[in-house]
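We give the entry.
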Amino acid sequence: MTYPRDLDSMMMKPAVSLQPPHSHNQHLGYQKQFTLCRAVKMGKWAKYGKKYKKEWEKEDGLREWISGVPGDDSVAACKFCKTTIRAHHSDLVSHSSTEKHRKNAAPFSNMRTLFQSGIRKTNANNSMKICELILAAHIACHSSINTIDHLAEVVGKISNKEISLHRTKCTALINKVLGPSMLKELCSDIGDNDYSLIIDESTDITTKKKLCVVVRYPSYSKKRIITSFLGLVELERGTAEVVTTSLLDFIENHAKLNVKKCNGLATDGCNTMCGTHNSVMSRFCALNPHVTHIKCICHSLHLCTSYAMRKLPSHLEFMVSQTYRYFSHSTLRQQKYAELYSTINVGEQPLKLLKLSGTRWLAIAPCITRILEQYDELKLHFEISKDEEEKNYTADLLYQMYSDPANKLYLAFLQPVVSQVNRVNKLFESDRCNANRLLEDLMSLYKSILQRLMIPRTFCTWKAVADYDVNDERNHLPLEAVDFGVKFYIELGQSRLDSGIVHTVKKHGRDFLMKLLQELQQRLPSNINHLQSLDALTPETVLGVRKPRLQELSFLPKYSGDIGKLDGQWQRLATVSWPKDVINDSEKFWLTVHSHQDASGERDFKEVGQFALSMLSLPISNASVERVFSQMNLIKNKLRNRMQHKSLENTLHVRAFMNRNNMCCREFDPTQEMLSMFTKDIYTNVDEHEYVEVPDV
């Protein structure tokens, strides 16, 4: 007896002819044969039936056409043939190889190939967009746009990618994608919260006036107070009317910020910015009466020192500046001096002399320090140079100055004073310093100078120190009792000067200290009041026994919300156990207070935290604007003097974005919004001169 190998043929006709049995035993034999036949070909699970499996829709060869039939899991449907097949895997595989199925599937094959290639093309386009955006961000952060012509080809060669990015496209990406999206991200982070502005004007390499706008605000998403570049505004003139109009137009129409939410405006001390009548500040206050004006303390300290220097002999400043100029443009002179210094100091090399700048804050302090460190070597060098070089009037004049011990005595007196002022100045230049500690440093400087000149007296408060009458001669110490510093007296003992010359030096030194003290007292009261207000927000004060009442805070009138709710939260601050790691940092403390939640999940200190952070976000100096101007001069320099305003501003936006996110171009990942903005529209409305840039030499 033989059995058919095909299951269907077995079911249609048996392999043997089953005749009616002639006996009962023969009948049982045929029945066993038939049962054995079914068991061999149908399998032991056949009697339970088979069901449609979802995993078949992911299998190669089936997923393109297979689908289930709703309500009947015993069959599968073919999308191409519009028919059903038994839910047996072997039947489905057999169906996919039939001529009918291949003929019906042919029209869909081309469409499927086209669709899949479209997906691959889209993915490839996104990958290429990301690559080009990262390269554009790198160019904005580090180099000239002309560099991209070669950089893109080098990167493409290394990565085996066809990168089509040159200076026109790179500039378009910076101006139409990166810059605008990064500005939008900054303004979105500010939102409807309070913020402060820091403004100053300058001129670029082409003498075009620019107004730089820097914003300072509490960022609840980044958990810190951020100071960042907001925009660069072109000015036709530097008048108060033009500056104010341009500033307001930029804030409302370009940055989309609410002018009423600006709680602080920091400027320098010029009359255009902060004069009593018809200034930028007076016009701005007409729109927002609650804004606080902050004079830059760094500018004030620089001016105080400059006015005090006029009380000293003028040749001292000449001596410091000409010492640098004598060596700055001559390699031969530098080599000769280095050999002389190395001979005297056994192989050591001299430190470079520093340039005295009229615009850089307190640059004279490090210049004097560097000269005093190598005073004798410089004196000897000028003595040799005046004899070796004929008609070298500068070397002869400098030798005479260095030979006068009175000049060294002046420098020995001046160096500790200006270094102390410079130290405080650097504290105010920082954006990350603790604002509550600055009052103590500033007043310590003032008090140290006061104690040198005035009769000893005990002061209970900083206000008493600031209000002390320094012009009353009855409070002055006699000349011999004035403290000129230990460095002065050490040098005085070594100089052996005539008593008349010593008296003259001391008189000039006292006049310098008195003028410095008077200028500090005149220029700092507004800053002292502001810093005293911030001192009330220190965690030690708020949580301590000396906690002031809410009505005693000088900045309370600036709050426009529910005073009762604010007072309740202010009183309850000391009842909460705050984390120990935030007690020593006011910024972290108030951010923790703002995000604190009660048992129901609501922020129960939101108002007081938000108000305190808005006060802490008030600026303390204009140093951040000056840093932007330094970046501007590095970007738009002599070789790139034809760069347009739009390219300059958006390049600064890219650098500011990297700075406030603590990253660089290698860590930058383009956002989905940037990819959506990367279309052919980046080439529309393009100025033909926008991409012009002098080639690198």
In short: The radius of gyration is 41 Å. The chain is about 55% helix and 10% strand.
